[in-house]
Amino acid sequence: MRWPLPALQIVVAFASAFNVIRFRLDNLLLEGAAELDRLTLAALVTIAVLTAAVLALCWRVPAATTRGTTLALVLVALTALSGFVPQTVQKERRTAEHVASQAQAERREQTFAREMQGWADDIDKRIAGPHHPLEPDQAWAFLDAVSSAGYRDDGPNPLSARALELLQKALAAELLDVNAEVPGHRLKDPTVRSLFLQFYKERIEPLRYSLAKQDWEIMRLLATRAELLQPDAAPLVADLKKTMVPGPSRFISLK
User: Fold this and answer.
1) pLDDT at 156 over 60
2) Global pTM?
């Protein structure tokens, strides 16, 4: 038992250590580098300890014995498994993070769906009952909700379309005064402007070369009822004449 098993252990130890080190080098830029470093060190220490144990066992047992050989083979197998511990732990951690992220995303979507349904119910009540247009701050919150629907569409999804239909419905019922003045929502620009201009200044103008399609569709709807002759609306008028060029995912550019 003295020579074959030690040789096998050394080969397995080198292979396992190489596997651990290669995994760490392949994942240098991953988040959680400190944890990966700890896993790598623990795996290498375990491989070294197991190798020392096999060598000591084989040195102390001069003749082949069933019990000694079995124990040595178990240690060799543990050495081989140690080379895959960092990958396994990392995979399990990523899986758990993905599950948690998916659950959080589902909760956000459910919250947003309830919010949109609340707006839909509110619009229907205002249309069916006494005519009470949205207050300027309510109108901005409504536009923000419609805009957010577009950011939830990474592929074919009726969510953004339903939100735009709700905006069209509110505009047709004259529940949304796009010319009402609202304050800016950016700390560096609290200027009071017409609702449609405020939306343009905050959501369109700074991003016209990488613009969410949903925001541009909102802007075009608002423009149909906006007072575009005022001087501050000149950049918007110019953008409305540009061509919408599809970009990646939900984004477009104006050229």
Assistant:
1) no
2) 0.66
Contacts of 191 (CB under 8 A, 6+ apart): 183, 184, 201
- Alpha-carbon torsion (187, 188, 192, 197), positive or negative: negative
Rounded CA-CA distance 183/189 in Å is 9
Backbone angles phi, psi at 84, to 5 degrees: -110, 0
* HSE-up (13 A, CA, CB side) for residue 227: 12
AA letter at 137: D
Pull the structure tokens for residue 73: 């083979």
Cα–Cα distance measured from residue 127 to residue 144, given in angstroms and rounded to the nearest whole number: 21
Q: Which of 204-208, 215-219, 223-227 has the lowest mean pLDDT?
A: 204-208
Six-digit token string for 143? 């536009």
User: What would the mean pLDDT of 122-135 be, rounded to a whole number?
Assistant: 90
What is the crossing angle of helices 136-150 and 85-128, to 10°?
A: 140
Contact in structure between 150 and 214 (CB atoms under 8 Å): yes
